[in-house]
Specification:
The chain is mainly beta. The protein contains one helix and eleven strands, in the order H-E-E-E-E-E-E-E-E-E-E-E. Strands 3, 4, 6, 7, 8 and 10 form a six-stranded antiparallel β-sheet that branches. The mean pLDDT is 93.
């Protein structure tokens, strides 16, 4: 069976690029009630020497309306100050709450965030409808021949 990611996984951009800074940044919340797992990918640009940077996942029952977002144990990933232009990834499987978001913690020195993306996998229903952050003409091509793209 061919796994077609565009029909079997949900993709979303949950944070745009953020210029160099030292303040923590929260991604948009993503509804995980329709999937088994969610993976967050944080892309970094330049990280100044001495920067204290990390990512962590928080969860809420209602996207923070009446149930605040709280840290999830064991989800912190440290991003060293020499890891410019790399990505950090954390996956939550079987989340206990419906909503999740990624927090990029930045302190002491500047760190550039190139963006944060979420991938929902093992959906409860397929095909997966992609959100508005995915270009509608995205496609899957099987065994393409060489030639004009």
């Amino acid at each position: 069976m061919l796994l077609e990611l565009l029909t079997q996984a949900g993709f979303a951009r949950v944070m745009n690029a953020v210029a160099a800074g030292t303040t923590s940044q929260n991604s948009s919340g993503i509804n995980c009630s329709d999937c088994e797992s969610v993976t967050f990918i944080a892309a970094f640009g330049t990280i100044t020497a001495g920067a204290v940077t990390s990512i962590k996942v928080q969860a809420s029952d209602d996207d923070g309306s009446s149930d605040t977002y709280d840290d999830l144990a064991g989800t912190s990933v440290v991003v060293a100050d020499d890891q410019d232009n790399k990505i950090a990834i954390v996956t939550i499987t079987r989340p206990r709450k419906a909503w999740a978001r990624l927090v990029v913690v930045r302190g002491t020195q500047n760190a550039v965030i190139d963006g944060v993306f979420a991938i929902k996998t093992n959906p409860r229903k397929t095909p997966v409808a992609q959100p508005s952050t995915v270009i509608a003409t995205s496609k899957t091509v099987v065994s393409p021949a060489e030639g004009t793209a």
